[in-house]
Amino acid sequence: MFDAWVDRSSGRTENVDMPADGTASTPHIGITLSIIAEVGDDASTLDNVPAAAREVEQAGLDSVWVPDVITGDSRPALEPMTVLAAAAGATNRIELGTCILALPLRQLAWTATQVQTLQYISGNRLVLGTGIGGFTGEPFWRAVRAPTKRRGPWLDDALDTLPRLVAGEKVDPDGAGVPIALQPATPMPPLRIAGNADAVLARAVRHGGWFGGGAGSGGPETLRPGLDRLREIAAEVGMPMPRVTVAPEVTLGVAGAAGKARDERAAGLVAEGFITAEEAARIPIAQSVGQVVDALGAYLDVGVDELVTGPAGEGADWLRGLEMIAEGKRQLT
């Protein structure tokens, strides 16, 4: 009964504005929703997902993204695929991304049916950022008996099988002798493969998308070696350069909120060993539209196609920061 507003056509392409010469003309900027907190924090600090997703869409931005960090140590965290279902129901246009779904945590058939469901209810707006996962020592990882070794080869097999399951083919997903056919069949969402090792970059080339940046990654210039290597691998195998999505190492938002968020983030990165205190002090802050344009534009200049970021603060500060990012996008266009 809702077919009038949900487009389930199999021909959806990625949300990329292309002029006549074939080069991308409009920067694509997505917003990360806050669906995890620190141990001891109240769950009320997590985003109201439907409301936040609507604000992102109304601001003219391109996507919302959610992390996958369920640790099982009393840290408040929401399950990302369920969160994206809520965001899908509250929006009509924006893409819905994971940054980054740890596929080894999940039984592949369950993941396939979640992907199908999200594609079906959203009109094929899912973007599946994925990787091998990085929290193998956490209680949740052990509780679900996820693999801790040879996760790269496991992921390669999973990424070969997942599109067939999503497309409705009859497949034995784990070699147990139980072939299944899942319906309704949907298009496989675009992939973004996270990581920096050569094997990861080769995987990103094969699947057409790379997710870079993130915690402790440094500024845009630090991406150049990875981007150059992506181009080399793509040329070696005769494939196009994959689409590049990056979480920039910069804190955006209104004065006060941005500084506080940067300091808290920097302290956490130092405590977890991602960066040194000296490196933490160099994490930039963008507290005006002009600074947002400069900070994000520097990433676009080195060859990034899409940026995934978010405004600092809560409530009114978050909304003002969101509009700052949206205005920055308009000026970058």
From TrEMBL:
<feature type="domain" description="Luciferase-like">
    <location>
        <begin position="42"/>
        <end position="319"/>
    </location>
</feature>
<dbReference type="InterPro" id="IPR036661">
    <property type="entry name" value="Luciferase-like_sf"/>
</dbReference>
<dbReference type="GO" id="GO:0046306">
    <property type="term" value="P:alkanesulfonate catabolic process"/>
</dbReference>
<dbReference type="Pfam" id="PF00296">
    <property type="entry name" value="Bac_luciferase"/>
</dbReference>
<keyword id="KW-0503">Monooxygenase</keyword>
<feature type="compositionally biased region" description="Basic and acidic residues">
    <location>
        <begin position="1"/>
        <end position="15"/>
    </location>
</feature>
<keyword id="KW-0288">FMN</keyword>
<keyword id="KW-0560">Oxidoreductase</keyword>
<feature type="region of interest" description="Disordered">
    <location>
        <begin position="1"/>
        <end position="23"/>
    </location>
</feature>
<keyword id="KW-0285">Flavoprotein</keyword>
<dbReference type="GO" id="GO:0008726">
    <property type="term" value="F:alkanesulfonate monooxygenase activity"/>
</dbReference>
<protein>
    <submittedName>
        <fullName>LLM class flavin-dependent oxidoreductase</fullName>
    </submittedName>
</protein>
<dbReference type="InterPro" id="IPR011251">
    <property type="entry name" value="Luciferase-like_dom"/>
</dbReference>
<dbReference type="InterPro" id="IPR050172">
    <property type="entry name" value="SsuD_RutA_monooxygenase"/>
</dbReference>
